[in-house]
Write a structure and sequence with these properties.
With 129 residues, the chain is α+β, with helices and mostly antiparallel strands. The chain folds into two domains: 38 residues; 78 residues, K homology (KH) domain (GMP Synthetase, Chain A, domain 3). It is built from three helices and five strands. The strands form two sheets. A three-stranded antiparallel β-sheet has the order 1-2-3, with no helix packed on it. Strands 4-5 form a two-stranded antiparallel ribbon. Strand 4 and strand 5 form a beta hairpin. The radius of gyration is 18 Å and the shape is elongated.
Length: 129
């Protein structure tokens, strides 16, 4: 289980999200009333997929002792009519053959965030006083 807490005061729309050991600042772009002091919520969501992808691939390549020098990811999140669309581009740099590259792409699709976004999702909201 993962737990984060969030807080927003009167600053439009700067907020803090904290875990047990880390903190990030979120905000909205200036053109929608924010100060652009941090990633927007949509950017954080896209960032989660990017980070999980390259971390999962890195872990796998390290276990296999493959010559993977770098993993580059680019994630675009679009809000389309009736759905959200993620476009993820992944590039592997290193001395890898086609079979290794194909396996790494399959592993990228197994990252926990990819699985969470493509599987059934349930959001339970509890009101707290």
């Amino acid at each position: 289980m993962y737990k984060v807490t969030g807080h927003i005061g009167k600053d439009h729309y700067r907020a803090e999200i904290k875990s047990a050991t880390n903190k990030i600042i979120t905000d909205e772009p200036v053109d929608v009333g924010g100060q652009d002091l941090g990633l927007s919520p949509s950017e954080i969501l896209a960032s989660s997929l990017a980070a999980c992808t390259y971390i999962t691939v890195r872990m796998y390549a390290d276990r296999k002792e493959w010559n993977l020098d770098e993993v580059l990811t680019n994630v675009i999140l679009e809000k389309l009519e009736g759905k959200s669309k993620f476009t993820r581009t992944v590039e592997f740099k290193g001395n890898l053959d086609d079979a290794q590259r194909n396996r790494l792409m399959a592993i990228a699709n197994k990252c926990p965030i990819h699985q969470a976004l493509t599987g059934p999702i349930e959001i339970e909201t509890v009101f707290s006083r």
